User: Which sequence fits this backbone?
C-alpha cells in the first residue's frame, strides 16, 4: 500500500471510465482508450470497473487506479465490490485503491463491512475507499479503517437525498467531520460544480458520465434543446 497515492490525486480530477455490458462503449479496449484520453486531458487518476478493465487500463496508463467490481447478488442491494472475492480480484488486477460499497445495507454471503475492512487492511496492498451515501456511513467507514470516503452512493440508497446534481451538503459536512480525505463523486456534470465540490471541502473530484458516457452527454443536450422549444 502506497499512501503517496493520495498526495498524487489531491486537488485534481479523477475520471471514472466505466461501461456496463448493455452500454454502447462496453469493452476493455474502449475503456483503456478512454483512460488514455483522460490522462492526456490532465486527469490525476482513473476509476474502473471489473478486473479485465482494470488490467487493460493499468497496461496503458500510468496514473493511480481506483478499482471496483460491480456484481449483483440475489437478496442484497449492494453491488459495488460486494464481497471479499471481488475485492481480492480487483487488487490482483492491479488497482492501487479498492472501492467498496460502505453503506449500511446488508451484504451478500453474510459478510460484514467490518470484517471485510479488517481483512483487506491486514493484506495491506491497496488503499480502501468507502462508497457511502450519508455522513453517518462515512464516519463509520472511517472508524473501520477506510483510507478514503467517497460520496458515490448519495442518491442511490432510498434514505439519502434524491437529487439531480452533486450532494454538496454531504461533501461539506463529511469533509468537516472526517479526518481522512473525502472524494466528491456522483452526478458532477459541469466545471462549476467541480469547483463547488472543492470549495465544499472535497480532496479530489471523481467524474464519470459527464466525460465517459456519450449517451448521457447527448441526452443532456437533446433534452435541453427540446425544452427550450
Ligand atoms: C452509483 C454508482 O453505481 N456509481 C458508479 C460507481 O462506480 C458509477 O456508475 C458512476 O459512474 C461513478 O460513481 C461516477 O459518477 P457519475 O457517472 O455520476 O459522474
Assistant:
Amino acid at each position: 500500500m502506497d499512501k503517496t497515492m493520495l498526495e498524487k490525486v489531491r486537488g485534481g480530477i479523477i475520471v471514472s471510465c466505466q461501461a456496463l455490458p448493455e452500454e454502447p462503449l462496453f469493452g476493455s479496449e474502449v475503456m483503456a482508450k478512454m483512460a488514455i484520453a483522460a490522462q492526456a486531458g490532465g486527469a490525476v487518476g482513473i476509476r474502473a470497473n471489473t478486473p479485465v478493465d482494470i488490467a487493460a487500463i493499468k497496461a496503458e496508463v500510468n496514473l493511480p487506479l481506483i478499482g471496483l467490481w460491480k456484481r449483483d447478488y440475489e437478496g442484497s442491494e449492494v453491488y459495488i465490490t460486494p464481497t471479499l472475492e471481488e475485492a481480492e480480484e480487483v487488487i490482483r488486477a492491479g488497482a492501487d485503491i479498492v472501492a467498496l460499497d460502505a453503506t449500511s445495507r446488508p451484504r451478500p454471503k453474510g459478510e460484514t463491512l467490518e470484517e471485510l475492512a479488517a481483512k483487506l487492511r491486514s493484506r495491506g496492498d491497496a488503499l480502501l475507499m468507502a462508497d457511502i451515501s450519508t455522513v453517518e456511513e462515512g464516519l463509520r467507514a472511517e472508524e473501520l479503517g477506510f483510507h478514503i470516503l467517497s460520496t458515490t452512493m448519495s442518491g442511490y440508497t432510498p434514505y439519502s437525498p434524491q437529487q439531480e446534481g452533486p450532494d454538496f451538503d454531504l461533501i461539506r459536512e463529511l469533509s468537516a467531520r472526517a479526518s481522512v480525505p473525502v472524494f466528491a463523486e456522483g452526478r458532477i456534470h459541469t466545471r462549476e460544480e467541480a469547483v463547488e465540490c472543492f470549495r465544499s471541502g472535497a480532496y479530489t473530484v471523481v467524474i464519470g458520465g459527464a466525460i465517459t458516457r456519450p449517451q448521457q452527454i447527448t441526452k443532456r443536450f437533446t433534452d435541453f434543446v427540446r425544452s427550450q422549444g
Remarks:
- The first helix runs from residue 4 to 9.
- The domain at 4-227 is CATH 3.20.20.70 (TIM Barrel).
- Residues 16, 18, 68, 80, 152-153, 156, 185-188, 206-210 surround N-acetylmannosamine-6-phosphate (CB under 6 Å).
- The chain has a mean pLDDT of 97.
